[in-house]
Amino acid sequence: MSTIQAVHTTPIQGQKPGTSGVRKKVTEVLQPHYIENFTQSCFNTVKEREVLEGSTIVVSGDGRYYNKTAIQTILKVAAGNRVGRVWVGQNGILSTPAVSVIIREREGGIALGGLILTASHNPGGPNADFGIKYNIGNGGPAPEDWTNRIYEHTISISEYSIADIPDVDISSLGRTEFQVDGRPFVVEVIDSTEDYVAKMQSIFNFDDLRALVSRPDFKIHYDCLSGVSGPYARHIFHRILGVPLEQIKNSEPLEDFGGGHPDPNLVYAHDLVHAMGIGAEVQHGDYPDFGAANDGDADRNMILGKQFFVTPSDSVAVLAANSAAIPYFAGGLKGVARSMPTSTAIDFVGQKLGIQVYEVPTGWKFFGNLMDAGRLSICGEESFGTGSDHIREKDGVWAVLAWLSVIAYKNKNSDHLVGVEEIVRSHWQEYGRNYYMRYDYENVDSNAANQLMETLKNKFSEFQGQADSYEYTDPVDHSVTKNQGLRFITPEWRVIYRLSGTGSSGATVRVYYEKYEKVNLDLSTDQALGSIIDWSLKFSDINAILSVTGPTVIT
Ligand code: G16
What we know:
Alpha-D-Glucose-1,6-Bisphosphate, Chain A, domain 3; alpha/beta; seven-stranded mixed beta sheet; 17 helices; binds 1,6-di-O-phosphono-alpha-D-glucopyranose; 3 domains; single chain; globular; about 25% strand; six-stranded antiparallel beta sheet
């Protein structure tokens, strides 16, 4: 029989959830009581709203360093708070979208919520990043009123409850039951991919997908970047669809992501970018026809064609325009949405379809309310996030299946292989093209970043166009979210400055450039945006204020 102890603790600074949970260096998380304090603060927040006692929750993550240790601690705190049952993916592995599916649907959606251990696309290892966030009963990240409350608890906490149960073997499937102060506490180690794969089979036409991937003239290159998408990609693409295993790269989740940066963009997914012939001298080489990558926790995606990059903003617009390719959307789209800095490409699709287009602040949590209210079907973000109302997280593997469904659909009556580039170019012909680029200034001094934002705000009146600090009123619950980025808008282009909310140290400034062209569809991004970028560098004086010579990442 195990017992529950109340352990005295003191607040730990810096446990404020950012854009999607708390992300910190592992070295910081190693300090005593770190996981206990945060978990107890989440549970205290849950108890103010729901009945935690006897409930089922999900705990797992992207397989990064320190997750297994944190899971054992969370199990003990869960038992100490009288949670009835915890579902843990085998070896602590569940992608973020899989957690969302499990919360929403396993055993009829009985789970109250879940703790996801991930720092997403940030690197892993003893000297890299760790992350933790709470997802609520709709399967989505806790909204602002929850995360604000979690934070308040972290700065006022004085004790946590913990049970003295032994560590649980999470390496094999099965059920372990403990008696904790006379009541049962159950840990069920569940298959990491089963629920998620069944969900995908209910959304897509797998016969069409199988027919496409078995075409001799269609070759895939899928890079899991040693993140958690590997087991899902192998299950769906290799075991079910028959894609040769050698075309699914880095599909073993590693605690340090093989030393790489599990971020599916043109900089960090360099092996994939190279394999697809992007930037190569040789034109029309024997490159794969379709390339894809996911991030550490498999909620992000990057889509590539032969020597062709699809911007995330274009990607979601193309999927919305071709939703007829996906059986799940057979009844049509309820509405579409994007985060504010995401290009307006999807707006043109929404207008043509005659459906509502929503603009929300950066953060997937803002889409959840619209989905729960039945107003939103497909949405996406410039930060390589795409998804739909099938769950309440963005979904990297879903995005790959959605793109393959569109390709299969476009090839139904075609005498040649209609590839990614042809699909995107014909989309531009119909809707116009949103040239887009993002500059990231990573890990700069926080004071300097704040000074930059202040300087820009003070220059609103000098700007010959619309300049404001973006503020959002949620159309469902009318909550207001302020200070979500500084916008400089003319009828032809937009420049947006924003502080990232996902870094683990210092500050990251993002600058987003966008220009819409109805006719000139074949410019290079530099040609289209060069003069706007030059203007912005001068106007903001960003290099001087941040003491840098340029951005660290350009996408
Ligand atoms: C998170 C959020 C996304 C957001 C992204 C970038 O993604 O879920 O909605 O767009 O961060 O945020 P920021 O620009 O503040 O760094 P992820 O994949 O990191 O969980």
